[in-house]
């Protein structure tokens, strides 16, 4: 078990201090008098990095000597956020660093604010990957994360006159103190070109891919420090670089010249992270990104394997398991087949047997528009040999389908990797299921729907292959580091080993009725709310009442997440107050954080509407400060760390069946926020843990959603039957919130009425509004609310990512931990 942080000794402190000074002088070329906070930040990181790298060396040596089986987590996204606080905490050096800097006249908190977020992800999927590698290191499991070293992470959001503007994110502009370049492990990746069919001496058909261009993949390693500081794994991110190589053979082959013109500029491959977008723009480069990092990573794994086992492939499946984080790295499946069949010259069946024992796949969404499909023509152009291999995999698989359902062409059409139609498409989900030994969804309900609605035939063909692993979050970042006062209170009550054994929090439940503890717990919440109020004042110049309910919805902006349901309810409250100045409600601050994909028009319109309603409500004296609406720009990991500890109410209001899991729901509940939510994703499991009396569940469940869809959902019925809904929607059409610009908010009304309200906002509105009344009542009873909040924190043990990782290890990866001395 990793030990709790030790008390600060003068020796540690002085050592840390001199390391910081040394780096200020020798790494940064400045001194104590000249250094600004940015320089102090870098020097502090460098001092920390000395210890991190020692841990890394020990870990790598131990894993090498023990020839350990390892999991390789392939993910196009790792949303790491900031690392200094995390690394200090995990090494138990936070207090040491804090006091060392204090003696130098520097505030650690200010220094930490200098660190740019590593925003190499869109949202839940990328942050999950970051939590998972934290847990893997903490649990001393041999693991490596593989991804892309994007030069620009997710765009920075600015709000101008209420509208979202995207600006480039430049997290590395002034250098990143954590990363280490490893030129000794560069890989080469081929693209474009053509395939030559040859006949070997033994009569065997040989395929040779003559690539049109070759790019270099340069690995940059980020150390991943486990809690307790013993195991330090790596996150290996590949940066593309042009190689000198140009294939003159191909060039001279004449006919191919034009095709090769499409050569990508090698260094654009890892230039920018794509936002989850509705639009199809930049598709080709995205596929190249996926292949680029999958191929580099596979070759890296194989190089390491060969160092220990030479050309003997028989032990590969014992040493290597690869987890595919969604279908983004699915092209790794045909890539491994290519390497084994074309390069290592294994026969197809041997190679396929290896492949299907190595890969496991996690599905993160059921939304049809988010399921990846690539035009076969595009794959053929970029990866001609891979398309052949995909066809071969499919051909053999179709024979299996025929054996199971003889002559059933409908089944074949549905299960085929290839979707026939105007344009042939390659279904990456089907490829992933067929090429993996395990497939999992990310919450119970989601996994049930993966089996029942998305892949029912696969479930029938391979019973047990489709399974569930409920998501989790690391309590090191999402409680200990982001909420020090609550952590200290918990330590005092139940001891300090909960960060690695989160079920221990149950020990708080017995104090839920204790008035003193309730007061202490809510005092911490109040202090956190004051800090957030300062942040809100600073960033938006809005004054908020810290005794109001802090009602928080933080997540990507998408119709299925229904920020507009929240907004309609705010407008309804506002209207009630205008109609009846005595309308009885506890003051509320509605706080949003959300980025919209740049091409997602309606999502941007919803952000605009939130900001316009905020302008009006916040400045209307008739409201008497009872409602404030706050949209905090540029929602990101480091902002989440400030918002979550200060939240009273957590909005988890997706249409049932649409949110695969959610992980913000877990972070908020862990920090003592109560959930208002639908029976969707992990909300269901949160309700099971905390009990129905400690959560506000409302609205249709997934069966009711399906039933209403089947019978024909008519949003106009709700519009005409519920005068409040009608009034609020009609309000959007006026220029009340957008003076001089009537109709500026009309697209929201249109999507709900003319476009059929695809996520059934109106159907759930009244239930939501009623649940909000119950929230209001509960909050006014201070003791009742305190008790509920404490129970929420106490019952979150299940949602540690350590538990998720243990599920993966026991049921899928079959890994042993390896302790590092
Ligand atoms: C992608 C796209 C792309 C096209 C436009 C619409 C759209 C909508 C969503 C997505 C995201 C797909 C994958 C994803 O991020 N899923 C999230 O994974 C989290 C971790 O498992 C989970 O908690 C979230 O519920 C799930 O949405």
Q: What's the short version?
A:
The chain has 33 helices and 25 strands.
Descriptive account of the structure:
By secondary structure, the chain is of the alpha/beta class. It is 48% helix and 15% strand. It contains 33 helices and 25 strands. The strands form six sheets. Strands 1, 4, 7, 8, 11, 12, 13, 14, 18 and 19 form a ten-stranded mixed β-sheet that branches. The protein has a six-stranded parallel β-sheet with strand order 22-21-20-23-24-25, with helices on both faces. Strands 15-17-16 form a three-stranded antiparallel β-sheet. Helix 22 (563-579) crosses helix 29 (723-733). The longest helix has 30 residues, at 37-66. The radius of gyration is 27 Å and the shape is globular. The two termini are 13 Å apart. Allosteric enzyme that catalyzes the rate-limiting step in glycogen catabolism, the phosphorolytic cleavage of glycogen to produce glucose-1-phosphate, and plays a central role in maintaining cellular and organismal glucose homeostasis. GO terms for molecular function: glycogen phosphorylase activity; pyridoxal phosphate binding. The modification N6-(pyridoxal phosphate)lysine is found at residue 667.
Describe the sheet with the most strands: 10 strands, mixed
Radius of gyration from the CA trace?
27 Å
Give the CA-CA distance, first to last residue: 13 Å
Please give the share of residues in helix: 40-55%
Mean pLDDT: 95
Number of helices: 33
Number of strands: 25
The structural class is alpha/beta
Low-confidence spans:
255-262
The portion of residues forming beta strands comes to 15-25%
Overall, the morphology is globular
Modified residues (N6-(pyridoxal phosphate)lysine): 667
Pfam families: Phosphorylase (PF00343)
Protein name: Alpha-1,4 glucan phosphorylase
Keywords: Allosteric enzyme, Carbohydrate metabolism, Cytoplasm, Glycosyltransferase, Pyridoxal phosphate, Transferase
């Amino acid at each position: 078990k990793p030990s709790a942080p030790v008390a600060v000794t003068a020796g540690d402190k002085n050592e840390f201090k001199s390391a910081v000074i040394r780096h200020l002088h020798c790494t940064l070329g400045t001194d104590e008098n000249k250094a600004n906070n940015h320089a102090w930040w870098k020097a502090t990181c460098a001092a920390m990095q000395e210890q991190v790298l020692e841990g890394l060396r020990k870990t790598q040596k131990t894993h090498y000597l023990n020839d350990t089986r390892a999991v390789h987590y392939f993910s196009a996204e790792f949303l790491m956020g900031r690392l200094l606080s995390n690394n200090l905490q995990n090494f138990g050096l936070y207090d040491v660093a804090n006091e060392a800097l204090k003696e130098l006249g520097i505030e650690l908190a200010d220094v930490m604010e200098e660190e740019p977020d590593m925003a190499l992800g869109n949202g839940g999927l990328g942050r999950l990957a970051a939590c998972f590698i934290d847990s893997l290191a903490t649990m001393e499991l041999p693991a490596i994360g593989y991804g892309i070293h994007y030069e620009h992470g997710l765009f920075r959001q600015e709000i101008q006159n209420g509208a979202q503007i995207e600006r480039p994110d430049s997290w590395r502009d002034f250098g990143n103190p954590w990363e280490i370049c490893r030129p000794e492990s560069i890989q080469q990746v081929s693209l474009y070109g053509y395939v030559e069919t040859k006949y070997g001496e033994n009569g065997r058909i040989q395929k040779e891919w003559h690539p049109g261009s070759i790019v270099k993949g340069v690995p940059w390693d980020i150390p991943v420090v486990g809690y307790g500081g013993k195991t330090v794994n790596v996150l290996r991110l590949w940066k593309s670089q042009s190689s000198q190589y140009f294939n003159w053979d191909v060039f001279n082959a004449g006919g191919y010249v034009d095709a090769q013109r499409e050569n990508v500029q090698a260094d654009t491959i890892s230039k920018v992270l794509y936002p989850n977008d509705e639009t199809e723009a930049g598709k080709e480069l995205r596929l190249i990104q996926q292949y680029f990092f999958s191929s580099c990573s596979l070759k890296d794994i194989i190089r390491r394997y060969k160092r220990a086992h030479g050309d003997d492939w028989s032990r590969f499946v014992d040493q290597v398991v690869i987890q595919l984080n969604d279908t983004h790295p699915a092209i790794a499946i045909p890539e491994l087949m290519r390497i084994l069949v074309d390069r290592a010259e294994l026969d197809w069946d041997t190679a396929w047997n290896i492949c299907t024992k190595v890969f496991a796949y996690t599905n993160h969404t059921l939304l049809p528009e988010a399921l990846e499909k690539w035009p076969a023509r595009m794959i053929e152009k970029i990866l001609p040999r891979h398309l052949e291999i995909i066809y071969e995999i499919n051909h053999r698989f179709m024979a299996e389908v025929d054996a199971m359902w003889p002559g059933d062409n409908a089944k074949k059409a549905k299960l085929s990797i290839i979707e026939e139609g105007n344009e042939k498409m390659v279904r990456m989900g089907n490829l992933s299921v067929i090429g993996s030994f395990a497939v999992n969804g990310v919450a119970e309900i989601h996994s049930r729907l993966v089996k029942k609605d998305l892949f029912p035939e696969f479930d029938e063909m391979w019973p047990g292959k489709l399974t569930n692993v409920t998501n989790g979050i690391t309590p090191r970042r999402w409680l200990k580091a982001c909420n020090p006062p609550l952590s200290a209170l918990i330590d005092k009550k139940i001891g300090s080993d909960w960060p690695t054994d989160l079920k221990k929090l149950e020990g708080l439940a017995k104090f839920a009725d204790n008035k003193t503890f309730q007061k202490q717990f809510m005092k911490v919440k109040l202090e956190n709310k004051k800090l957030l109020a300062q942040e809100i004042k600073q960033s938006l110049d809005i004054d908020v009442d810290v005794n109001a309910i802090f009602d928080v919805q933080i997540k990507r902006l998408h119709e299925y997440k229904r920020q507009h349901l929240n907004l309609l309810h705010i407008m309804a409250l506002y209207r009630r107050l205008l109609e009846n100045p005595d309308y009885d409600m506890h003051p509320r601050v509605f706080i949003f954080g959300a980025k919209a994909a740049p091409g997602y028009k309606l999502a941007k319109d919803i952000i605009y509407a939130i900001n316009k309603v905020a302008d009006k409500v916040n400045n209307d004296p008739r409201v008497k400060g009872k409602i404030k609406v706050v949209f905090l720009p540029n929602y990101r990991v480091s902002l989440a760390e400030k918002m979550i500890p200060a939240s009273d109410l957590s909005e988890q209001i997706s249409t049932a069946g649409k949110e695969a899991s959610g992980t913000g729901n877990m972070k908020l509940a862990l920090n003592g926020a109560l959930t208002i939510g639908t029976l969707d994703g992990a909300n269901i499991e949160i309700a099971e843990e905390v009990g129905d009396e400690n959560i506000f569940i409302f609205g249709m469940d997934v069966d009711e959603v399906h039933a209403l869809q089947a019978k024909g959902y008519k949003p106009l019925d709700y519009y005409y039957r519920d005068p409040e809904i009608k009034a609020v929607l009609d309000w959007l059409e006026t220029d009340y919130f957008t003076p001089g610009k009537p109709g500026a908010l009309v697209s929201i009304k249109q999507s709900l009425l003319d476009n059929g309200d695809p996520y059934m906002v109106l159907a759930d509105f009244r239930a939501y509004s009623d649940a909000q009344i119950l929230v209001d009542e509960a909050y006014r009873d201070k003791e009742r609310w305190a008790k509920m909040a404490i129970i929420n924190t106490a019952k979150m043990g299940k949602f540690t990512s350590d538990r998720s990782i243990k599920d993966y290890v026991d049921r899928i990866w079959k890994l042993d931990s390896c302790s590092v001395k």
